[in-house]
Amino acid sequence: MTNLYRVLELDTKNRQNITKAQIREAYVNLALRHSDKGGDNTAFQEISNAYRVLYDENKRKQYDADNDTQDRQIIIISQLISTIVKMEPEFLKKIAFIGGGCSLVLGFVSLLAEDDFTLGARLGLAVSIENFKYEILSLVDKNHRRDVALYLDQIIENIKSQ
């Protein structure tokens, strides 16, 4: 997902403090550089779209909320991966290869699915896997995505059926 603040070359760390005037100024400056008259039409469209979303207060609030959710999910996955990497070598050997670029995450998820959780915890795990499925798939190289997606679906079904 393209960061619209970056498209307009605005400071993403202080996005709450960015004013409509700053958004407009950034748009005008970039639009002059990437004019639709003989310039890079794709860049101009991207700049125009960023301006339309960020300048409209309602669209901007929705964009920020969606972005915050995505950021939180990425942080959770990063923490999960970080935790896995710090685990004991013997445990890592058990989950070493399942396929694709995120075998540790998939192995960890499959081991969690096999543990003796309560029904509520199992359903929570299934929902978590469903929620993070596309983020997990984004970590997998293209050649393995279909297999990993099927594997995740199978884990989700197994968790729900137990």
TrEMBL record:
<protein>
    <recommendedName>
        <fullName>J domain-containing protein</fullName>
    </recommendedName>
</protein>
<dbReference type="InterPro" id="IPR001623">
    <property type="entry name" value="DnaJ_domain"/>
</dbReference>
<dbReference type="Pfam" id="PF00226">
    <property type="entry name" value="DnaJ"/>
</dbReference>
<dbReference type="InterPro" id="IPR050817">
    <property type="entry name" value="DjlA_DnaK_co-chaperone"/>
</dbReference>
<feature type="domain" description="J">
    <location>
        <begin position="3"/>
        <end position="67"/>
    </location>
</feature>
<dbReference type="InterPro" id="IPR036869">
    <property type="entry name" value="J_dom_sf"/>
</dbReference>
